[in-house]
Amino acid sequence: MRIGHVSVLVDDQAKALAFYTGVLGFTKKTEVPLGEYSWLTVVSPEDPEGVELLLEPDQHPAALAYKKALVADGIPVTMFTVADVSAEYERLTAQGVTFTQPPLDAGSVTTAVFDDTCGNLIQIVAPHG
User: Fold this and answer.
1) CA nearest 42: which of 32, 55, 33?
2) Cα 20 to the center of its chain, rounded Å
3) Cβ-defined contacts of 19-26 (< 8 Å, 24+)
4) pTM
5) Which of 10, 25, 63, 100 could disulfide-link 118, Cβ–Cβ 3.0 to 4.6 Å?
Protein backbone atom coordinates (compact mmCIF):
# COMPACT_ATOMS: atom_id res chain seq x y z
CA MET A 1 0.00 0.00 0.00
CA ARG A 2 1.21 3.49 -0.79
CA ILE A 3 -0.20 6.99 -0.95
CA GLY A 4 -1.10 7.87 -4.52
CA HIS A 5 -3.30 10.95 -4.14
CA VAL A 6 -4.10 13.56 -1.51
CA SER A 7 -6.86 16.16 -1.80
CA VAL A 8 -6.95 19.88 -1.29
CA LEU A 9 -10.48 21.28 -1.35
CA VAL A 10 -10.61 24.34 -3.61
CA ASP A 11 -13.31 26.91 -4.31
CA ASP A 12 -12.53 27.13 -8.05
CA GLN A 13 -10.61 24.48 -9.98
CA ALA A 14 -9.42 26.80 -12.77
CA LYS A 15 -8.13 29.37 -10.27
CA ALA A 16 -6.52 26.59 -8.24
CA LEU A 17 -4.80 25.13 -11.29
CA ALA A 18 -3.43 28.56 -12.21
CA PHE A 19 -2.11 29.12 -8.68
CA TYR A 20 -0.68 25.65 -8.08
CA THR A 21 1.06 25.55 -11.48
CA GLY A 22 1.78 29.20 -12.31
CA VAL A 23 2.78 30.36 -8.84
CA LEU A 24 3.83 27.30 -6.85
CA GLY A 25 5.42 25.53 -9.83
CA PHE A 26 3.58 22.21 -9.83
CA THR A 27 2.76 20.48 -13.13
CA LYS A 28 -0.71 19.42 -14.25
CA LYS A 29 -0.84 15.63 -14.35
CA THR A 30 -4.48 14.72 -15.00
CA GLU A 31 -7.63 16.54 -16.05
CA VAL A 32 -10.69 14.39 -16.68
CA PRO A 33 -14.00 16.26 -17.11
CA LEU A 34 -16.73 14.93 -14.81
CA GLY A 35 -19.73 17.11 -15.53
CA GLU A 36 -19.40 20.52 -13.91
CA TYR A 37 -16.01 19.65 -12.36
CA SER A 38 -12.94 17.61 -13.25
CA TRP A 39 -10.66 15.02 -11.74
CA LEU A 40 -7.77 17.49 -11.67
CA THR A 41 -4.34 16.65 -10.28
CA VAL A 42 -0.93 18.29 -10.10
CA VAL A 43 2.46 16.84 -9.24
CA SER A 44 5.88 18.11 -8.33
CA PRO A 45 8.10 18.46 -11.40
CA GLU A 46 10.81 16.94 -9.19
CA ASP A 47 8.74 13.73 -8.84
CA PRO A 48 6.26 13.53 -11.76
CA GLU A 49 5.37 9.91 -10.94
CA GLY A 50 4.99 10.64 -7.22
CA VAL A 51 1.99 11.55 -5.11
CA GLU A 52 -0.67 13.51 -7.00
CA LEU A 53 -2.41 16.48 -5.39
CA LEU A 54 -6.12 16.40 -6.27
CA LEU A 55 -7.60 19.89 -6.62
CA GLU A 56 -11.02 18.83 -5.44
CA PRO A 57 -14.13 21.05 -5.52
CA ASP A 58 -15.28 22.17 -2.07
CA GLN A 59 -18.99 22.24 -2.94
CA HIS A 60 -20.15 19.89 -0.16
CA PRO A 61 -21.44 21.86 2.87
CA ALA A 62 -19.18 19.89 5.22
CA ALA A 63 -16.15 20.83 3.10
CA LEU A 64 -16.93 24.51 3.36
CA ALA A 65 -17.39 24.36 7.14
CA TYR A 66 -14.15 22.36 7.52
CA LYS A 67 -12.11 24.83 5.47
CA LYS A 68 -13.58 27.86 7.19
CA ALA A 69 -12.85 26.42 10.66
CA LEU A 70 -9.23 25.57 9.78
CA VAL A 71 -8.55 29.03 8.35
CA ALA A 72 -10.22 30.74 11.33
CA ASP A 73 -7.91 28.83 13.67
CA GLY A 74 -4.83 29.41 11.45
CA ILE A 75 -4.37 25.69 10.76
CA PRO A 76 -2.79 24.64 7.44
CA VAL A 77 -4.68 21.98 5.52
CA THR A 78 -1.45 20.38 4.27
CA MET A 79 2.31 20.84 4.12
CA PHE A 80 4.81 20.96 1.27
CA THR A 81 8.53 20.33 1.73
CA VAL A 82 10.96 22.87 0.27
CA ALA A 83 14.74 23.13 0.31
CA ASP A 84 14.81 26.64 1.81
CA VAL A 85 11.75 28.22 3.44
CA SER A 86 13.20 31.74 3.43
CA ALA A 87 14.00 31.55 -0.30
CA GLU A 88 10.49 30.24 -1.07
CA TYR A 89 8.99 32.95 1.14
CA GLU A 90 10.86 35.62 -0.85
CA ARG A 91 9.99 34.04 -4.22
CA LEU A 92 6.30 33.65 -3.39
CA THR A 93 5.96 37.05 -1.71
CA ALA A 94 7.40 38.65 -4.85
CA GLN A 95 4.58 36.94 -6.79
CA GLY A 96 1.95 38.43 -4.49
CA VAL A 97 1.34 35.40 -2.26
CA THR A 98 0.01 36.34 1.19
CA PHE A 99 1.69 34.68 4.15
CA THR A 100 -0.09 34.34 7.48
CA GLN A 101 3.15 33.17 9.13
CA PRO A 102 6.56 34.31 7.89
CA PRO A 103 9.51 31.93 8.17
CA LEU A 104 9.78 30.60 11.71
CA ASP A 105 12.61 28.52 13.13
CA ALA A 106 10.88 25.69 15.01
CA GLY A 107 13.93 23.79 16.23
CA SER A 108 14.55 20.98 13.76
CA VAL A 109 12.59 22.68 10.94
CA THR A 110 11.76 26.09 9.52
CA THR A 111 8.14 26.70 8.55
CA ALA A 112 5.96 29.36 6.95
CA VAL A 113 2.23 29.45 6.12
CA PHE A 114 0.53 31.04 3.10
CA ASP A 115 -2.97 31.50 1.67
CA ASP A 116 -3.49 29.48 -1.51
CA THR A 117 -6.20 31.89 -2.79
CA CYS A 118 -8.64 28.95 -2.91
CA GLY A 119 -9.74 28.96 0.74
CA ASN A 120 -6.81 27.12 2.34
CA LEU A 121 -3.73 27.76 4.39
CA ILE A 122 -0.68 25.79 3.24
CA GLN A 123 2.47 25.26 5.28
CA ILE A 124 5.93 24.99 3.74
CA VAL A 125 8.64 23.28 5.74
CA ALA A 126 12.36 22.62 5.43
CA PRO A 127 14.25 20.37 7.83
CA HIS A 128 17.51 21.68 9.25
CA GLY A 129 20.71 19.93 8.30
Assistant:
1) 55
2) 7
3) 19/116, 19/117, 19/118, 20/53, 20/55, 20/116, 23/92, 23/95, 23/97, 24/80, 24/92, 26/53
4) 0.94
5) 10
